[in-house]
Amino acid sequence: MKHSFIETTPESHFPIQNLPYGIFQKKGQSPRAGTAIGDYVLDLSVIDEVGLLSGTGAEEKKVFSSSSLNQFMSLGRPVWTAVRNKLQYLLDSKTPDLRDNEELRLKAFHPLTDVEMLLPADIGDYTDFYASREHATNVGTIFRGKDNALMSNWTHLPIGYHGRASSIVPSGTHVRRPSGQRKPTGADYPVFGPSIQLDFELEMGWFIGTGNPLGEPIPVNQAENHVFGLVLVNDWSARDIQAWEYQPLGPFLSKSFATSISPWVVPLEALEPFRTAGPQQDPEPFPYLQQTKDGAFNINLEVHLAPENTEQATRITNTNFSYMYWSIAQQVAHHTITGCNIRPGDMHGSGTISGPSREERGSLLELSWRGTEPLQLNDGGERSWIEDGDKLTISGWCQGDGYRIGFGQVSGQVLPALSEAQILGNQKMKI
Prior knowledge:
The protein has helices spanning 44-49, 70-74, 77-91, 96-99, 102-108, 133-144, 239-245, 253-256, 268-271, 328-336, 364-367, 420-430; strands at residues 21-26, 32-37, 40-43, 109-111, 115-118, 126-129, 160-162, 168-170, 175-176, 179-182, 191-194, 198-199, 202-208, 227-234, 237-238, 259-261, 266-267, 275-276, 296-297, 300-306, 314-320, 347-349, 375-376, 382-383, 391-399, 404-415. By secondary structure, it is α+β, with helices and mostly antiparallel strands. The protein has 2 domains: 21-117, Fumarylacetoacetase, N-terminal domain (SH3 type barrels), CATH 2.30.30; 126-430, Alpha-Beta Complex (Fumarylacetoacetate hydrolase, domain 2). The strands form 7 sheets. Strands 6, 7, 8, 13, 14, 16, 17 and 22 form an 8-stranded mixed sheet that branches. Strands 4-3-2-1-5 form a 5-stranded antiparallel sheet. Strand 23 (375-376) and strand 24 form a beta hairpin. It is globular. The model has no long low-confidence stretch (mean pLDDT 96).
């Protein structure tokens, strides 16, 4: 097994086998690209400037001095592979280039605690899917009953909708409770006010690297070549706003107020040892969705909830990405089957990830069964929905033999909704 001269523990999310990419900023410096190794970020622009990335195909473009990964993403898998191989060589415990150059090391490595992590890409488009059978079945059962849980189209195609890219935020960003229209049970008319059924959605997301020309679909068995890497996603949801607005066109304001993502993009190549078979698909998909190799990945996922003014967090979800019915490749192939073009930096969300047992459900809507079965917290409290001040943290990792391929975490704390006076005041200011 490879080891880096940068010390890592078996529990570290960022060993030499991982090397995720992100955009970081150190005080007094401009944003630039880095890779995480142990408790440090390696400034890729520094080692690129001194020629250590020569021969990869990325050095001519100076892509690592950019404030986003978009240009690097656009270079394609051969360049991504070359850069990854070079980084693993440079960080290897047996390679002296960085290890023995103290002056260069001081310029190139920064403790993760000393930098601010930013969004990894300029996200042009965001598509959110609905690809977990367990989640779709739970939600359908809650709203339509067990006999009509899955809609007739669900097992034939990956359901998705166009999300809002402008409100995707990096981990640590506070999330304001949204206000909107909701229709109380038994009422004849809707009311306006803060959402009282605020929820999280445990998802994975992936960034598109190379895109496709308009009018040219991406074949399912080539789809992964267009995927740069994966992140953790919390697609915050206002369930009461959603219930009133979603007919007939689907989610809108109930999901557009915030989507939180982890800052480190884990390359698909780092996940290759953890590839596994997904659920059996019945009926057999159409030929354009038939993947010839295993399309799922064994990624452990956890969600912790910590009430305000306490460090006592409760693990409320423990599930796995491999439960997803529709694979990444199938979702990309379906997205483009009409000829829709996807572009570098676009993000796709998997949709809520749930497993077969209660503790594997990926949202409070399911965990509390729409508020009828509140969750018990470690501090003695309970939750049916997220309350003001609550902090939600999602973490994820693949477990190898003596190492982990981790995603770090994505967290967000909920702030109270704006008052009606503040909302009306904001409207007047804009006028």
